[in-house]
Amino acid sequence: MRRIQSRVNVNSPEYQENLKANEARLGEFHRRQHAARYERPQRDLDRLERQGKMLPRERLEMLLDPGTPFLELSTLAAGEHYDGDSPSASCITGIGIVCGREVLIHANDSTVKGGAWYPMTIKKIVRAMDIAIENHLPVIHLCDSAGGFLPLQSELFGDKYYAGRIFRNQAILSKMGCKQLSLVFGHCTAGGAYVPALSDYSVIVRGTGAVFLGGPPLVKAATGEEVTVEELGGADMHTSVSGTCDYPAETEEEAIAIGREIVAQWSKKKKWDAQQQAPEAPYYDPKELYGIIPANIKTQFDMMEVIARIVDGSRFHEYQPAYGKTLICGFAHIWGYKVGIIGNNGILFNDSSKKAAHFIQLCNQNKTPLVFLQNITGYMVGREYEREGITKDGAKMIMVQAGSEVPKFTIMTNGSYGAGNYGMCGRAFDSRFLFSWPNSEISVMGGEQAAKTLATIKTTQLEREGKTLSEEERAKIYSDVTDDYEHQSSAYYTSSLIWDDGIIDPADTRNALGMAIATAMNAPIEDPRYGVLRV
Ligand SMILES: CC(C)=CC(=O)SCCNC(=O)CCNC(=O)[C@H](O)C(C)(C)COP(=O)(O)OP(=O)(O)OC[C@H]1O[C@@H](n2cnc3c(N)ncnc32)[C@H](O)[C@@H]1OP(=O)(O)O
Question: Single Gene Ontology BP term (predicted)?
């Protein structure tokens, strides 16, 4: 494959301006990430210390194989919700290596409300377990949870994707033969109790670990029975009487050591036979992305320059280079894995949509995973394009993309608006992993367009009533809508809602994708089958 010839001039004023803007963005990203991971009120840290419990990240570090990478997911989940009271949605999820096996890890964070599940905590855990199901991964639960966050029960209890889905997913994983291990470090009450109970293996720490449907106060209130924590759900009772847990441990360190011994017994599954070659670092420095990503989201940039800083050796075999040029399609390798890349270089037109549909079919036929690099304002609108069948051609792209059997991966590199989000494998289209860059934005349309649309609707409405929209009213609509859009389309807001699997430093994109692709290779790739195409 030929090396991409970069046209980036690192000394140009434009590059330098972008660099300055992106360094500021990265500063903000790292500040938020650090706060979500480590900053907690002192009294909550003191409470854990008094109880002799480790912090969730200390447990995680001890569990993982030393020196191996951990692909943390949705670190900034819930960051813009609940007044910031649920940092990282009160839990850690991610993919790591334990005893040489790729595992999905879900850890409760009892520094936040005793590890109680906020609605976003549940969304994050369910998503993590969906990842385990899609990619056939075993799961290790680090349990220390008060169960559902009681004040918000109506947002987390009874609906399809609420708390029950965690247990449903555990049952599905078990049915699939994906192993689950629970290490019980703290009190696991009610919902929190079912996680170890539905696991294949469980270890419980004597003294601090406990599992029960209702704790002693609830039992007293419900039946009048007075019972201690140890009698009701402690390590000795569960490992020698009820059989709810398998192994007692004297300390958290011992529980982790027993857990690692258990994982070491699990058979190593053969991975999907991917098209692979020796990995090669990109020829162009991924950090140059900071000078390529525009300071202003509306400024177009060449996605080929991004591809050059993600793929092995910066080598790329472009498909149909002269046709449908607002969409780049082609083959490359990431961490040695062959991938098909689809990246936006402008609006999606009829030709670019048809080219995408065709390319996606080729990748499915060859069982080549697909990477989508989104920077899309949408599909072209207007009489000429409708007559040419833009709606039909966009539908073709969506039909083939949605019907794909190969694993798909999506990166939000800049803007993602309207149906372009869908065609380019947005969240609704089952990317195995979807990551956002800190500068990126997602919304149904741009804020200014939405403001203009709403102002026009209001004007027409008032005209019907023989009235007019004053300049002040128009300005108010404009500023209200653009302010809302600016806030709600930001990567921090959409990641807070878990519309992605996390925000990443652009320079880490290659490694995040490499790990994601390696993870996806745990599951077989089926033969392609699509719905009916309107040709
Ligand atoms: C999903 C399903 C089907 C059902 C459910 O899960 S219902 C949930 C039932 N859960 C409970 O009854 C647990 C009640 N909590 C406790 O027993 C204890 O808080 C504890 C053992 C989990 C932790 O005790 P610890 O001494 O370590 O800490 P506390 O000072 O008691 O609590 C710290 C902090 O967390 C708040 N908290 C605890 N549990 C919940 C909860 N389930 N929902 C909301 N908030 C909870 C507690 O009020 C305290 O808050 P502040 O720091 O703001 O005082």
Answer: L-leucine catabolic process
Tokens of 426: 């947005």
Mean pLDDT of 292-296: 98
> Is the pLDDT reported for residue 410 higher than 90?
yes
DSSP letter (8 states) at residue 57: H
For residues 60 and 260, what is the distance between their CA atoms, to the nearest angstrom? Answer: 12
In this structure, which residue's CA is closest to atom 21 in ligand 1? 187
Q: Domain 41-265: give its CATH code.
A: 3.90.226.10
Ligand 1 mutation pick, 90, 113, 218, max ligand atoms within 8 A of CB: 113
Which residue's structure tokens are 């807070």?
A: 496
Mean pLDDT of all residues in 277-295: 98
Q: What's the 492 CA to ligand 1 centre distance in angstroms? A: 28
Q: What is the pLDDT of residue 375?
A: 98
Going by alpha carbons, the residue nearest to atom 1 of ligand 1 is 191
Q: Where are the alpha helices (DSSP H) in 266-410?
A: 289-292, 303-307, 350-366, 383-388, 390-403
Distance, in Å, from the CA atom of 34 to the CA atom of 294, rounded to the nearest integer, reads 25
Residue type, 140: I
Ligand 1 centre and the CA of 291: distance in Å? 47
CA dihedral 352, 355, 360, 363 (to 10 degrees): -130
pTM over 0.80: yes
Exposure class string for 462-472: b at 16+ Cβ within 10 A, else e: eeeeeeebeee
Q: Provide the mean pLDDT of the chain.
A: 97
| Burial of 527 per CB tally in 10 Å (0-12, 13-18, 19+) | exposed
Q: Which fold has domain 286-444+490-521?
A: 2-enoyl-CoA Hydratase; Chain A, domain 1 (3.90.226)
Distance, CA of 53 to CA of 411 (rounded, Å): 37
Residue nearest to atom 53 of ligand 1 (CA): 113
Given the CA of residue 214, which atom of ligand 1 is nearest to it? 12
Nearest CA to ligand 1 atom 25: 114
Mutate to test the pocket of ligand 1, among 187, 211, 230 (most ligand atoms within 8 A of CB): 187
- Cβ atoms of residues 115 and 152 within 8 Å: no
Spans of all domains in the chain:
41-265, 286-444+490-521
Task: List ligand 1's pocket residues with C-beta within 6 A.
Answer: 47, 113-114, 116, 146-150, 163, 187, 189-191, 215, 218
Contacts by residues 250-257 (CB-CB < 8 Å, ≥ 24 positions apart): 250/205, 250/206, 251/205, 252/53, 252/54, 252/59, 252/185, 252/205, 252/208, 253/62, 254/205, 255/183, 255/184, 255/185, 255/203, 255/204, 255/205, 255/209, 256/59, 256/62, 256/63, 256/183
Buried b (16+ CB within 10 A) or exposed e, 313-325: bbbbebbbeeebe
Name the one residue in this structure whose structure tokens are 């036929």.
Answer: 365
The whole-number pLDDT of residue 264 equals 98
Q: What is the pLDDT of residue 269?
A: 85
Distances in Å between the Cα of 32 and the Cα atoms of 58, 176, 401 are: 20, 37, 34
Rounded to two decimals, the ipTM of the complex is: 0.98
